[in-house]
């Protein structure tokens, strides 16, 4: 089935050690999003790509970067994770319609 | 003022009752409105979308939109224990692709 796939499902990293989360999609959607969701909080948009056009939210810390090498893949890089970056990271896509299709998320723990 | 506000709950209803979930939004130019269900530790899944004033029904779910009052609601009829989850309200503001989410209302359906 066409879907949005995030790997890994759980990621543990050390304080300050760079980490990369990945997302792939078989929907051929042109927009890909990264949201951060902390416990009992709203998903917060970090950035999104419209095709290769990168759109950063004003309040997204510089510690967070993203890459989209092709239509199918998108990566979230956290250069120096802090304890406050522990969260669920949600990748989503959208096509010509308005609906967001979410992956299963990556739960990041920082030790 | 948060862009999308929801009562965090928990909202507790007995099995078979109607659950009523509410959401207000601040941007009067918002155009599209969505309800997502999120089980603990899982990613959000779309339940309903609504774009014009009035009611929209889909099975046991009814979404209601009142743009003049900047208010969206979700009714769940014949609530089941499997409906126990957090319900996220999401809004697409004019000129933006991404959705802005509320922090969700936790629903508990008591058997």
Any chance you could write out the topology, listing elements then pairs?
The complex is a heterodimer of chains A (111) and B (111).
Chain A: E1 4-7, E2 10-13, E3 19-25, E4 31-37, E5 44-50, E6 53-56, E7 64-67, E8 73-78, E9 87-94, E10 101-102, E11 106-110
Chain B: E1 4-5, E2 11-14, E3 19-25, E4 32-38, E5 45-50, E6 54-58, E7 61-66, E8 71-76, E9 85-92, E10 100-101, E11 105-110
Parallel strand pairs in B: 2-11
Antiparallel strand pairs in B: 1-3, 3-8, 4-5, 4-9, 6-7, 7-8, 9-10, 9-11
Helix content of chain B: under 10%
What is the chains' assembly state? Answer: heterodimer
Helical content of chain A (DSSP H or I, runs of 4+)? under 10%
Distance between the amino and carboxyl termini of chain A: 36 Å
Q: Unreliable runs of chain A, pLDDT <50, ≥5 residues? A: none
Q: Which range does the strand content of chain B fall in?
A: over 45%
Radius of gyration of chain B: 13 Å
Strand content of chain A: over 45%
Q: How many DSSP-defined strands of chain B?
A: 11
SSE pattern of chain B, N- to C-terminal: EEEEEEEEEEE
Shape of chain A: globular
Give the helix tally of chain A: 0
Largest interface between protein chains, with number of residues from each side: A-B, 22 and 22 residues
